[in-house]
């Protein structure tokens, strides 16, 4: 469970975000008067969701002041979709943005991805069965034997392993590992998965399963 602070002058949006994320087991604190943020102990939270267009103090100003106090993820939730606004927000210290109107699954996925990344950065290694990831050096081992993964193969493997049991489409994997390019070559993911499987099979391991018509998961 994560502690999430949501700041928006629209009470309807606050209630919607609360309803979505509380169902994932998170604790949600809602604020609809942005100036009240500084009455909070900001170090108590794990992530902030922040609107941009608000009265008295806008989200850009608020993000800049919050970033001086904490280093965990800040996610903009905004109707402002101009590239200049997005660049400005990221430059002020935001980690990501989601445009209104937003999908339930997209909000949940973005929040969970940032929380997992935070946890990963605080973790040096992870083991699942015989497979071990050294996250600082970006190396993967089966027992004591190193698996010769390329950088991209390692990133895909680590992403799936961190979320083992969850199914991800090629689009989701591409977005997480390679970025948010619209003209993505999704066949690259298929080829990377093929190569990863071949390399783990040399050690009699088959960690990545295909869920036909849906995507892939680390089993």
Automatic annotation (TrEMBL):
DNA-binding region: 123-219
One record GO biological process: regulation of DNA-templated transcription
Keywords of this entry: DNA-binding, Phosphoprotein, Transcription, Transcription regulation
One MF term in the entry's GO annotations: phosphorelay response regulator activity
Pfam families from the UniProt entry: Response_reg, Trans_reg_C
Protein name: Response regulator transcription factor
Gene Ontology cellular component terms for the protein in this record: cytosol; protein-DNA complex
Keyword DNA-binding: yes
Residues the record lists as 4-aspartylphosphate modifications: 51
Xref: PANTHER family: REGULATOR OF RPOS, RESPONSE REGULATOR SAER
Domain OmpR/PhoB-type, first and last residues per copy: 123-219
Membrane spanning residue stretches: none
Protein's organism: Tissierella pigra
Domain of life: Bacteria
Keyword DNA-binding: yes
């Amino acid at each position: 469970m994560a502690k999430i602070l949501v700041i928006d002058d629209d009470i309807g949006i606050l209630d919607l975000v609360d309803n979505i994320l509380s169902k994932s087991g998170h604790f949600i604190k809602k604020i609809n008067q942005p100036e009240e943020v500084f009455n909070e102990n900001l170090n108590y939270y794990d992530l902030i969701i922040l609107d941009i267009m608000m009265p008295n103090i806008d989200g850009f100003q608020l993000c800049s002041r919050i970033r001086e106090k904490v280093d965990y993820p800040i996610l903009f939730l905004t109707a402002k979709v101009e590239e200049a606004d997005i660049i400005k927000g990221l430059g002020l210290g935001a980690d990501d943005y989601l445009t209104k109107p937003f999908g339930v699954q997209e909000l949940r996925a973005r929040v969970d991805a940032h929380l997992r990344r935070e946890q990963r950065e605080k973790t040096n290694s992870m083991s699942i069965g015989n497979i071990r990831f050294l996250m600082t050096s970006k190396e993967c081992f089966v027992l004591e034997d190193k698996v010769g993964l390329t950088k991209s193969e390692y990133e895909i493997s680590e992403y799936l392993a961190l979320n083992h049991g969850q199914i991800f489409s090629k689009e989701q994997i591409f977005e997480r590992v390679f970025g948010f390019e619209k003209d993505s070559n999704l066949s690259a993911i298929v080829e990377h998965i093929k190569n990863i499987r071949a390399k783990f099979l040399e050690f009699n391991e088959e960690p990545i399963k295909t869920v036909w018509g849906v995507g892939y998961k680390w089993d």
